[in-house]
Amino acid sequence: RAKADVTRAICFYELRMDEASRTRQTLARDLRRALELDQLELHYQVQTSVSTGEIRGFEVLLRWTHPERGHVPPSEFIPIAEENGLIMAIGEWVLRTACRQAASWDKPYKIAVNLSPVQFAHPDLASLVKNILTETGFDARRLELEITESTIIADKVRTLQTLRRIRELGVTIALDDFGVGYSSLDTLRSFPFDKIKLDRSFMSELEENPQAKAIVRAVLTLGKSLNIPVLAEGVETDDQLTILQTELCDEAQGFFLGRPKPVEQIFGLEGADSDADQQFSGRMPLAR
Ligand code: C2E
Ligand code: MG
Ligand code: MG
Ligand code: MG
């Protein structure tokens, strides 16, 4: 009887696994088609100076609206694209499209593009970046590439080489989701970063968890000692922003300052991001 139960459970499990892998296969096929049919879209989320509220740049976030399923989040389709290699073509599309779009803006804001560890493992990444900059006429100094610690773990020597080649172009590198990956301190010691992006989980606990606040403070001190600016991700409330101002955090990004928006909507009538403007208007910038 117990054996029959186990057998039934295994069959059920296999059925579910089949279902899951079928869904993944379907999604992979649809994603490939979406790329070919130009159905992917880029949203932009503002990054601001904590002390002045000034716009520092925009993070580029990939969006996919599936014809039947509707919005599919990147956390669902990026892993699928990484698994089957499609991330190479998608990543190239993201980079080229973002550079092309931002090249036509009135103001020379920076853009920050996420890179997958799979893209980073490719030996030609630096040449690809260089070619896209040339092709779109986009100023290298306006481009930032975001990588996470999982990128570095793969192959340290090669990653370091690629990072150097990219930085020689004038492109900057940000360490994304800092604080939740492995070997954070070794990463900072061994690799050249132009920015640290503190993972948003620290923001969500900032107000009620004294440990989270202590860690935020320590990371800000670390950033200052290493001379690397720190951006706080996931700022959702006025109180969080106030704490960041008190703690002299450099930059912030989050729903409170502006949601990711389609490119046509990021500039308000004033020519600046209106959400961020509103949040900062009437707020006295702290002296630094
Ligand atoms: P990420 O690079 O850490 O991007 C920040 C994520 O946090 C975005 O989720 C953004 O919408 C979300 N976010 C921003 N502010 C807030 C906030 O105040 N509260 C909360 N709860 N969330 C906030 P999204 O767009 O769903 O992207 C998730 C992840 O998918 C990104 O994390 C990044 O790792 C990956 N991703 C997105 N676009 C690309 C891309 O073009 N290429 C690659 N390789 N990965 C991408
Ligand atoms: Mg990012
Ligand atoms: Mg992040
Ligand atoms: Mg993330």
From TrEMBL:
Top-level taxonomic group: Bacteria
Domain spans labelled EAL: 24-274
Name of the molecule in the record: Bifunctional diguanylate cyclase/phosphodiesterase
Organism annotation: Pseudaminobacter soli (ex Li et al. 2025)
Phylogenetic placement of the source organism: Bacteria, Pseudomonadati, Pseudomonadota, Alphaproteobacteria, Hyphomicrobiales
Covered residues, full protein: 400 to 687 of 694
